[in-house]
Amino acid sequence: MECLPRGEMAQLQSERLREMIDRVYYNVPFYREKMQQAGIGPDDIQTVEQLKHLPFTTKNDLRDNYPFGLFAVPESEIVRLHASSGTTGKPTVVGYTRRDLVTWSEVVARTLTSAGIGRHDFVQIAYGYGLFTGGLGIHYGVEKIGAVAIPVSGGNTKRQLQLMKDFGSTAIACTPSYALYLAEALEEEKIDRSELRLKVGVFGAEPWTESMRKEIEQKWLIKAIDIFGLSEVIGPGVASECEFQHGLHINEDHFIPEIIDPVTLEVLPEGSTGELVFTTITKEGLPLVRYRTRDLTRLDYSSCNCGRTLVRMAKCTGRSDDMLIIRGVNVFPSQIETILLESGNLKPHYQIIVDRVHNLDVLQVLVEVDEQFLRDRISQLQSLSRKIQHDLESALGLSVDVKLVEPKTIERSEGKARRVIDRRNLQ
Ligand code: DLL
Predict the structure, then answer these.
(1) Mean pLDDT (whole number) for 254-261
(2) pLDDT at 317 over 80
(3) Global confidence as pTM
(4) Which of 36, 100, 172, 395 yields a CA-CA distance of 20 to 30 A from 370?
(5) Domain identity same for 25 and 126
(6) Structural domain count, the chain
């Protein structure tokens, strides 16, 4: 599949697309209504070229149909749920059938193989296990290729290093920022590089730059491979770099990519940078028609030295919305705002500051306290701050430093408020 001649790939995609459109039309009222509104019947879509006539699907559509409204199979056929953050409190829920899990292991197996990982490797999985797709997604791919899965999950840095040394991990899977943080800890722990067998890392779930790659490769003396995915589409396994590290091959026999202009929504010509859109053509639980990822990239259909014919997407560095990725966790400023405003004692003047300290993302929220509260209940400031911190931390799953400030101290703007200050320089 990875080396199929382009013509055959297009044929396969068209076949699978037809079958998938049929399924969503008859099984998901949401898609049927949208297609009817657009005046399109299932028979109107015969080839991949006609994909552009179909309406888009967005994260909001998933939220409006929360939790299971877009599932295309009866609940009895769903065997796993995962979720990722939405723009408000409600997460985006993804359901997998048994066959979806097989597909998922297959595409992650490709990701690992293209990174040079094989059955003799020991893969330390330091992505979080849980509703996040990173941990379990990589896990099943590792088992599929017959390598050894070491399911450490995220965090617990000292233990990560200890196990890496004792078990002789040859590969690590984690976010690129955590890889840098671990490298620093390695120096502090005075572990000698020669005590480790690590040779490769598969890093993703957040944007990272070429200079971060260089730093990781130099500090660890490994090859750092970029892997891309999103829960809605399947999780990790959507696209990944090969040994040439020049663009990420998209598993097009499962996910058809398009690049659109995020404003006009027109499909852009080959090679242009724009928003990445995916249509899943084999997924059963939650098939997606033209799903807007909000990630900005471009596609390259030229042949790759590795022999794969799969199209390559450029490293993703930006988004067309305001979603932040902090330690691999997706955070929308609107989630933070909702919690701040629910408290009743705070003003809608706040600032979100994201920084990277010792290679670790830190999140600080500054918010103005209501004047009345300040006058009457100054003694309760500390408990208010603790409550906000607790509410934010439990909603986001991240530690947050909350700072209550006096009224009128946060910079006002005459145009758009500058709510987010991101000092990490990821572009
Ligand atoms: O982050 C899935 C994943 C897990 C990918 C482990 C790779 C490794 P979500 O939590 O739904 O899923 O977040 C998806 O993360 O739309 C991108 O904005 C961003 N993202 C993921 N991989 C990369 C990458 C997982 N390699 C969102 N480079 C996506 C840049 C990435 N951004």
Answers:
(1) 98
(2) no
(3) 0.91
(4) 395
(5) yes
(6) 2
